[in-house]
Design a protein that fits this description.
8 helices, 69% helix, mainly alpha, 209 residues
Length: 209
Amino acid sequence: MNELFKKECRYAIETILLGGLVPFVKFTMENKYGKNWVSTIKPELLKNYYKDYFFKGNDINWEDPLGVLTLVQKQWRDTFSKSFAKSLSFEIQNYISELIGVRGNAFGHTQTDKFSFDYTYRALDSIEKLLSAIPNDRCAQKKAIESATKKGEILAIYVESQSQKDKSLFSWHEICGVMLLQKQRDSLRRKATQVGAEVNVYAFAKTTG
């Protein structure tokens, strides 16, 4: 189970997060510094502890969440703080810091024991909230919905695994699972409507059927 959660964490941060964040970062940085923004900020990035993760050739390494997240973190005051609602500034910075840690664990040699249901669910939740906070960006919103859907999937897997471990817990987990899944379905339905996306919000319920 922990190995599965580790794979889910890596997929979430490498595919879902970057899929929604990278276009926004590129647009925001070009809007701030112009088309040659990479060359403009490269000297500053080379001073960073994570400088080896920033670049792939002459461009940013857009395939590594560590470089992308750290770029946003380092450019927060000058660039990205203006791209989010001020009331969410503190929360968003926390999500970024948390996801940098998740990236380190998911890509490194961290023991799979760390990747519990709670850890994985929290990572997906942070990804969803970070991407949802990007205004007027359909790509980010669709990826936020994907993260929310993935939360429902791992919740269903967890509920099923717990019921198999101890039949006496089945009723409790079933009730909690149904309540949480219903809440997520309603949320997904609203978000999908807002961005004009079509999402099968019931797909992840099959494992609990």
